[in-house]
Specification:
Elements lengths: L1 H26 L20 E10 L4 E3 L5 E6 L6 E2 L4 E5 L2 H25 L4 H31 L4 H33 L3 H27 L1 E3 L4 E6 L6 E2 L9 E4 L4 E8 L12 E5 L6 E15 L14 E9 L15 E7 L3
Antiparallel strand pairs: 1-10, 1-14, 2-9, 3-5, 3-8, 4-7, 5-6, 7-9, 10-13, 11-12, 11-14, 12-13
Helix pairs in contact: 2-5, 3-4
């Protein structure tokens, strides 16, 4: 028994060591590289500049927001719908601005009525009233003067003359002043409106008209309309939702002109000096289906800026500065329709200048 144990234990140990070595060797085997699912696009030009392009509307994406914060009464468009400039996109709550417009129109009506009242002067009733007041005071003045004259005829020795004369003289002077006042009032009534009064009334009308126009504009802005002809790309608002406003407010409706489509190609700044807008250029779909789209130069953005378009490739660099070039996408040579969408990423190849 002792001999068997001495022989079996070393054998078992050696077998364990061998098994462990086999497992370690198996785990250290290099992992085979997976096959490439999609081969990258190949440039049709020997000397070329390569870039990544993002499809966008030829009008670029027009982002429409709310002019003022409020509830959305009605959304009039849906995604994919074709609109014309001036078509209604959505309508905000208009009650507050409608009330402001009514108040402003009432103020304008009051100001216009005041001007009409001033232009109607002198009124016949006012002239007749002023003439009657003058005639009444003139009669009282003539009567007082007559009584004073009769007192003078009584004589200096009469007692009544000494008592009543100062009173009658005071009445004559008072009535004389009242007659002069009545004559001035009649002249003022007959003259009508003074130029300064009319200027004040016209200024009031101008002020209330401006307030009315401001209120009307604010009310019209609650009906948000499309600024361009194009296609609705995105609708981010629903009936009854609250629409925020301001510099940080989100885009509620995005619109763009999809015919023709443009491709915004980003070229590394190190290749910028090699770029020639007169050279041929082509864009290719990324993926299994290989399609080429001829590109027609439109313009170059005159500024080098950080890279914005990303492809998601493992080795892609993000700390790159690029030059952006805008191309129009022409139909393929086979005449097939362009089935691209804004935001889609394409490979772009531009023939390099010598």
């Amino acid at each position: 028994m002792m001999n068997v144990r001495y022989i079996a234990l070393p054998i078992i140990a050696l077998a364990g060591i061998g098994l462990a070595a086999a497992l370690v060797n198996k785990q250290n085997q290099p992992i085979p590289a997976p096959p490439i699912p999609v081969a990258p696009n190949a440039s049709p030009y020997v000397d070329r500049i390569a870039g990544i392009g993002s499809v966008e509307p030829s009008s670029e994406i027009v982002k429409v927001g709310a002019p003022a914060a409020g509830l959305v009464e009605r959304v009039a468009v849906r995604e994919g719908q074709t609109v014309k400039a001036g078509d209604v996109l959505f309508v905000l709550d208009q009650r507050e601005f409608a009330a402001r417009l009514q108040s402003a129109e009432a103020d304008l009506h009051v100001a216009q009525a005041k001007l009409a009242r001033l232009d109607a002067r002198p009124w016949p009733e006012d002239v007749a009233r002023a003439e009657a007041r003058l005639a009444s005071r003139q009669a009282a003045y003539d009567d007082a003067r007559g009584r004073l004259a009769r007192l003078d005829n009584v004589g200096q020795d009469a007692v009544v003359t000494a008592n009543e004369r100062p009173t009658l003289e005071f009445q004559v002077r008072t009535l004389e002043a009242q007659v002069a006042e009545a004559k001035a009032d009649l002249a003022q009534v007959k003259r009508g409106t003074y130029p300064e009064e009319r200027e004040e009334a016209l200024a009031a009308i101008a002020l209330t008209t401006a307030r009315r126009d401001e209120a009307r504009t604010s009310l019209e802005r609650m009906t948000v309309k499309s600024p361009i002809d194009g296609t609705v790309l995105r609708v981010d608002i629903r009936d009854g939702e609250y629409a925020p406003a301001g510099p940080q407010a989100p885009t509620l409706v995005a619109i763009g002109l999809l015919s023709p489509l443009h491709l915004r190609v980003e070229i590394d700044e190190l290749d910028a000096f090699r770029f020639d807008p007169s050279r041929r250029a082509v864009a290719m779909l990324r993926g299994v289906v290989k399609r080429e789209f001829p590109l027609r130069y439109v313009r170059t953005v005159p500024q080098i800026q950080p890279k914005r378009t990303v492809t998601g490739d493992m080795g892609e660099r993000m700390d790159t500065r690029v030059m952006q070039v805008i191309y129009a996408i022409d139909p393929p040579a086979d005449g097939a329709p362009i089935t691209l969408l804004p935001g889609q990423v394409l490979d772009a190849f531009i023939e390099r200048a010598q």
